[in-house]
Specification:
Largest sheet: 7 strands, mixed
Strand order of the largest sheet: 10-9-8-11-12-14-13
Structural class: alpha/beta
Order of helices and strands: EHEEHEHEEEHEHEHEEHHEHEE
Low-confidence stretches: none
CATH class of the largest domain: Alpha Beta
Strand content: 25-35%
CATH superfamily of the largest domain: Vaccinia Virus protein VP39
Distance between the termini: 50 Å
Number of domains: 2
Shape: globular
Number of strands: 14
CATH topology of the largest domain: Rossmann fold
Mean pLDDT: 90
Helix content: 25-40%
CATH architecture of the largest domain: 3-Layer(aba) Sandwich
Radius of gyration: 18 Å
């Protein structure tokens, strides 16, 4: 059975959203927020070490955001992680229209609601995190019927699936992680939208298709900064771009970068310590 590395991270003060946002810069496959710690998972073949987490946490200390931490590393089997998720994942009403639920939970939909079924496994994008909710709220606002959508760093596939259910004609969802690729394909099939969504194991510079009406990217600041030119090259004139995975103090740097490559700021939306930004292309 496939195994995973598990890193238990305790820190003071306990600001899980802020710390988890920084940890996604590493090649991790999941974060579980518990009562007083973060539990981070990675594939056993990954090169992640305890020292890599300590470097990031020491950086957070240097920014006066936490004052202390402790990291422990263990190895677990895949089934244990999934059992934990099944206990934790709940139905989430993101907006009056969008509801996210796992396949193992029952929910009686209200009139006009769109139900998106997501079984997250080890992938990021369950609907619980603030950035996912921000993205979904903005997709609902900015989607145009018939849109061609690109979802960069798709994770569970949740944003691509939501786009189709909200009226997009088709979507290309890409991720450079094989686990995410497999999980996104599973979720696309569960939601019966496999005829409109193509999942591709790739990074944005590797795809040939261009002229997307709407591009979505819920990643972390460093990745978003590095792909700005590629994003601009894939979007059509008058296209829309929605970014998240960003902390409040990332705002200025990301806006400066994306406006410098040709985008125009349209909207900013906040939830707790997190930020989502909407741009349009000129």
């Amino acid at each position: 059975m496939k195994k995973f590395k598990q890193f238990n991270i305790v820190f003071e003060p306990f600001v899980p959203d802020l710390v988890s946002g920084e940890l996604w810069e590493l090649n991790i496959t999941g974060i579980d927020e518990r009562e007083s710690e973060l539990v981070v998972y990675s594939d056993e073949s990954s090169m992640l070490t305890k020292e890599m987490f300590e470097r990031i946490l020491n950086k957070i200390i240097s920014e006066n955001l936490i004052i202390s931490f402790n990291v422990t590393e263990t190895e677990i089997e895949n089934k244990n992680w999934n059992e934990e998720w099944e206990k934790k994942i709940q139905v989430i009403e993101v907006t009056d229209k969008i509801v996210i639920k796992p396949s193992f939970k029952e929910y009686n939909a209200k009139k006009g609601q769109i139900i998106i079924t997501i079984d997250p496994k080890m992938s990021f994008g369950t609907g619980e995190h603030q950035t996912t909710q921000l993205m979904l709220q903005l997709i609902e606002k900015y989607i145009v019927k018939g849109d061609k959508v690109l979802d960069v760093g798709t994770g569970t596939g949740i944003l691509a699936i939501a786009s189709i259910k909200l009226g997009a004609a088709r979507a290309l969802a890409i991720d450079n992680d094989e686990w995410c690729f497999n999980n996104a394909n599973e979720n696309v099939k569960i939601n019966l939208v496999e005829d409109k969504i193509r999942i591709q194991l790739a990074e944005i510079h590797e795809i040939q298709e261009k002229n997307f009406d709407l591009i979505l990217a819920n990643i972390n600041k460093n990745v978003l900064l590095s792909i700005a030119d590629d994003v601009y090259s894939k979007i059509k004139k008058t296209g829309r771009l929605i970014l998240s995975g960003l902390l409040l103090n990332d705002e200025k740097e990301v806006i400066n970068k994306y406006t410098s490559v040709g985008f125009q700021l349209a909207e900013k939306k906040y939830k707790d310590e997190w930020l989502a930004i909407v741009f349009t292309s000129a």
